Amino acid sequence: MIDALTLAVGLTALALAGWCGVAFSRDEPTKDWHFIGMAVVAVLTLVQLVIGVVCLGGGDRPAQGTAIFVAYLLGSAAAVPAAGFMSLAERTRWGSATVAAGAVILAVLEVRLYDIWGG
Fold it and tell me: What is the pTM of this model?
């Protein structure tokens, strides 16, 4: 795995969480620009997913098991899109809170992915 990509995903997820947290504190729902931020984070997680699968296909193995690594890769790729879809259902400030929570969860998943790979 690429440590810089894992760090980039984690930091952009935390930036998204802060951005949506500010929207929540201002009593604002998620706006179009929040969805653009979610798309950026989602693209980074998809790149990470592809690189992780390529590394596994190339013979590299995570220190703590392949199955758990793949499960965390899939979970990290789904965290922000799932929160984005849930925020569409809740068009109040709580939609912003949902995206912020999903982004924090993604950042935690990134730390765990780093640990699973053997970082």
Answer: 0.91
